[in-house]
Design goal:
2 copies of one chain form a homodimer. Chain A has 222 residues and is α+β, with helices and mostly antiparallel strands. Chain A is built from 4 helices and 12 strands; from the N terminus they run E-H-E-E-E-H-E-E-E-H-H-E-E-E-E-E. Chain A folds into 2 domains: 137 residues, Roll (Pnp Oxidase, Chain A), CATH 2.30.110.10; 34 residues, no CATH class. Strand 10 of chain A pairs antiparallel with strand 10 of chain B.
């Protein structure tokens, strides 16, 4: 996959040493998440909608009800901004000014396209579910034509955008290192807890193996 | 604080039973987070920038370098969309279609205003830091005039917007409850890990008491 060329929109201007444009860095940040924030414009007003997403090769995908305002707007091919961010830590410095957070984020710009055709839509939804829970798709009650019709799937190419990353320790002013206050990092993680079986389960209550490790979604086991 | 009146922009249309407009619900979701996604428009293009935020009474606040494109755009008083979302769980149903996620989100619409004056800015920054780490502000190397000048603080009134919440179990089609696949919820939480002291610390390495419990930021102890 090609690395991205910075554009007026995508170049990281502030703290440019935190910016990255290589495909692998961007893909790894996208793959460590589940919830994106999609920005779009209606009548000149900005909207930011959180939604689940997935990556497949050089595209990001998201979906929802065909009646959704967000999807009905974006399927027209208007400009979108697709942002994913992970909070990794709180950075406590000796001065308020040098406090920070550790994070990994990606901003992508482009226009989304609707996946057309029942077969193509179904394959996209299967790849979403299989990315989350490998092996589960075949266990489910099969999708119906009505359900597929009621679902819109969009995708956007990963071709204009950037990653921005902060890691590590506080960067204090040299004169401040002698200041006697605690400084350091509080790591933050997203974790899963023990799966809770639905009370109307007819089979085993024991969670399936594919729930044992969701670290591919950026979720660690508590 | 007043509850919010739904508008064309803020009314929850899809799955309207998930929508809420009362101030306390909105405030509690805002208070359980640290990272928002701010949407704005430059030359007709949408941008979504993740940034730290805090709430004080009926306003949300965010800040950053005075050189930031996001802040320089918003301080002009253009339209903004301010979104906060928390991922609470993965919801596994008997059909792919009924899979879902549990979440709490808030979308606010409005225009941001810049906090003017060194004193007012300093008080806003103090309230941010004190919300995160009560008692820490007085321990820090005091802010300088130069640092305050280099920082822009914006605030936006909580007056147009809505919350959207999904909690609980999968909602399967009645006919599907007999399907023999595991169904239920995988709870997701944001947690902190053991604080890591900076290696150049001059005082105690022991983390201060205000780091023992960060649940007021939506962060539980691992």
């Amino acid at each position: 996959m090609s690395d991205l060329t910075p554009t007026t929109r995508s170049r990281v201007k502030r703290l440019r040493e935190r910016g990255a444009y290589d495909f692998d860095t961007i893909a790894s940040i996208l793959d460590a998440g589940l919830l994106c924030h999609v920005g779009y414009v209606i009548d000149g007003h900005p909207y930011v909608t959180p939604t689940a997403y997935w990556r497949d090769r050089d595209h990001v995908y998201w979906h929802g009800s065909s009646a959704s305002r967000m999807l009905r707007t974006l399927e027209k091919g208007v400009d979108a901004c697709f942002t994913v961010s992970h909070l990794d830590g709180l950075v406590l410095a000796r001065s308020g000014f040098n406090h920070s957070i550790n994070y990994r984020s990606v901003m992508l710009f482009g226009r989304a396209r609707k996946i057309e055709g029942e077969g193509a839509k179904l394959r996209a939804l299967e790849s979403f579910l299989e990315r989350m829970f490998p092996g589960r798709w075949q266990q489910l009650r099969p999708a119906t034509t009505k359900e597929i019709k009621a679902t819109t799937v969009l995708r956007m190419a990963i071709e204009e955008g950037s990653a921005k990353i902060r890691t590590g320790w506080p960067h204090d002013d040299e004169d401040d290192y002698g200041w006697p206050v605690w400084a350091g990092v509080v790591p933050v993680r997203a974790v899963t807890q023990q799966p809770l079986p639905d009370e109307r389960l007819v089979g085993a209550k024991e969670p399936p193996d594919y729930l044992a490790d969701l670290s591919h979604l950026g979720l660690n086991r508590k």
